[in-house]
C-alpha cells in the first residue's frame, strides 16, 4: 500500500478521471486535481499546491488539447503543454519523486509508412503537436528520470471524444461523413490508465532509470477514423440500435485549421519489453466502452437501448465536425 498519495493532474479530462477511479478501485492513494486547484499557467500555485499534498509521485494527464483552436491560441497551448508540464516536472525533481507525463501521436508528421517507434524523429504538423513535443523536451530537461508516455486516439465513456461524438451523430444525422485516409491506434482511456498506474508502481518500486525516457502505449491494431466509426456503428447495430449511413471522405475533402498526420500509428513494443504492458486489441476495448454507453439490455419500442440517448445528448461538437480532433486528455 502506498502511504503518500499519487498526484494526478488533469482531473476533469477523461484520462485523469479514469486514473483517479482506477486508483480508488485498486486501493492506491491518489489525489486528482483540476485547473481550479492546480493551474499550470501559475507557477507559484503549482509549487504551493504540490507542497501541501506531498505526493509520492506525479502523473501529468493535463493538457491543452483543442487541436484546431491551438492554431490561433499558440501562446496558451505552449503555456500549458510546455511550460506547465515543465513546472510540474521541476517540482517533482526537486522533491526527488517520479514523474510520468502523457504526450501524443501528433508529434509525428505521418510521412512514415510503418508504425512510429520511440527512435523516430518527431516533426509535428500543427501547433498542438509542436506544443506537446516542446513539453516532452522541457519535462525531460527538468526531470531527467521522467517517463513520457505517448498515446493516440484516446476515448472513454465520459468526456469529449470520437466514440461519444459518433453516438451523438448517430441520433441526429442520417448520414455521417468521416475521413478514411488518416490511420492510427484507438486507445481506451481506462486501459491507458491501468498502464500508467503499472508504470507508476514500477517507478516507485524499482530503479527509476528503468522507467526513464519515452514510451509508446496505444491500443493494439490500427484503423482509420472511418474504420473506427464503422466499428462503432456495427456495435450499435449489434445492440439493437439502427446506425446512420457512413460515407468515407478524404482529409482534403474536410479541411480543418490544423493539419493532421495521415499515419500516427504507434509501435508499443518497447513498453511491452520494459514494463510487460500490452494493451488489448482496440476492437475489444471499444466493445467494453459501448457496453457502458449503450448497454446490453433489451431495446425499447423504438429499437433503442434505454438511456443511451440521455447519456449522449448533451455533447458539444468537435472542432472539426465528424472528424476526430485529438486525444482529449
From TrEMBL:
<dbReference type="Pfam" id="PF04321">
    <property type="entry name" value="RmlD_sub_bind"/>
</dbReference>
<comment type="pathway">
    <text>Carbohydrate biosynthesis; dTDP-L-rhamnose biosynthesis.</text>
</comment>
<keyword id="KW-0560">Oxidoreductase</keyword>
<feature type="domain" description="RmlD-like substrate binding">
    <location>
        <begin position="6"/>
        <end position="293"/>
    </location>
</feature>
<comment type="function">
    <text>Catalyzes the reduction of dTDP-6-deoxy-L-lyxo-4-hexulose to yield dTDP-L-rhamnose.</text>
</comment>
<feature type="region of interest" description="Disordered">
    <location>
        <begin position="297"/>
        <end position="316"/>
    </location>
</feature>
<dbReference type="InterPro" id="IPR005913">
    <property type="entry name" value="dTDP_dehydrorham_reduct"/>
</dbReference>
<dbReference type="GO" id="GO:0019305">
    <property type="term" value="P:dTDP-rhamnose biosynthetic process"/>
</dbReference>
<protein>
    <recommendedName>
        <fullName>dTDP-4-dehydrorhamnose reductase</fullName>
        <ecNumber>1.1.1.133</ecNumber>
    </recommendedName>
</protein>
<dbReference type="InterPro" id="IPR029903">
    <property type="entry name" value="RmlD-like-bd"/>
</dbReference>
<comment type="similarity">
    <text>Belongs to the dTDP-4-dehydrorhamnose reductase family.</text>
</comment>
<dbReference type="InterPro" id="IPR036291">
    <property type="entry name" value="NAD(P)-bd_dom_sf"/>
</dbReference>
<keyword id="KW-0521">NADP</keyword>
<dbReference type="GO" id="GO:0008831">
    <property type="term" value="F:dTDP-4-dehydrorhamnose reductase activity"/>
</dbReference>
Amino acid at each position: 500500500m502506498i502511504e503518500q498519495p499519487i498526484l494526478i493532474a488533469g482531473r476533469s479530462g477523461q484520462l485523469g478521471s479514469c486514473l483517479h477511479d482506477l486508483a480508488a478501485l485498486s486501493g492506491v492513494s491518489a489525489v486528482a486535481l483540476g485547473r481550479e486547484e492546480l493551474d499550470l499557467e501559475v507557477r507559484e500555485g503549482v509549487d504551493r499546491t504540490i507542497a501541501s499534498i506531498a505526493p509520492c509521485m506525479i502523473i501529468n494527464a493535463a493538457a491543452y488539447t483543442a487541436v484546431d483552436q491551438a492554431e490561433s491560441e499558440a501562446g496558451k497551448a505552449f503555456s500549458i503543454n510546455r511550460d506547465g508540464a515543465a513546472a510540474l516536472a521541476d517540482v517533482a525533481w526537486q522533491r526527488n519523486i517520479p514523474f510520468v507525463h502523457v504526450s501524443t501521436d501528433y508529434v509525428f508528421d505521418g510521412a512514415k509508412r510503418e508504425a512510429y517507434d520511440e527512435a523516430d524523429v518527431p516533426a509535428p504538423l500543427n501547433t498542438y503537436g509542436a506544443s506537446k513535443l516542446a513539453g516532452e523536451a522541457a519535462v525531460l530537461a527538468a526531470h531527467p528520470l521522467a517517463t513520457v508516455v505517448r498515446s493516440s486516439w484516446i476515448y472513454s465513456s465520459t468526456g469529449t471524444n470520437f466514440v461519444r461524438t459518433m453516438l451523438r451523430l448517430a441520433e441526429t444525422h442520417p448520414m455521417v461523413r468521416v475521413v478514411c485516409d488518416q490511420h492510427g491506434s484507438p486507445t481506451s482511456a481506462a486501459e491507458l490508465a491501468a498502464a500508467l498506474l503499472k508504470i507508476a508502481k514500477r517507478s516507485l518500486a524499482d530503479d527509476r532509470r528503468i522507467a526513464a525516457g519515452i514510451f509508446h502505449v496505444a491500443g493494439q491494431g490500427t484503423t482509420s477514423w472511418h474504420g473506427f466509426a464503422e466499428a462503432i456503428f456495427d456495435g450499435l447495430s449489434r445492440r439493437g440500435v439502427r446506425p446512420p449511413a457512413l460515407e468515407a471522405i478524404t482529409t482534403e475533402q474536410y479541411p480543418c485549421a490544423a493539419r493532421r498526420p495521415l499515419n500516427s500509428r504507434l509501435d508499443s513494443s518497447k513498453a511491452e519489453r520494459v514494463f510487460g504492458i500490452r494493451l488489448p486489441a482496440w476492437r475489444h476495448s471499444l466493445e467494453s466502452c459501448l457496453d457502458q454507453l449503450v448497454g446490453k439490455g433489451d431495446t425499447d419500442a423504438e429499437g433503442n437501448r434505454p438511456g443511451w440517448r440521455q447519456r449522449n445528448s448533451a455533447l458539444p461538437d468537435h472542432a472539426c465536425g465528424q472528424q476526430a480532433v485529438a486525444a482529449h486528455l
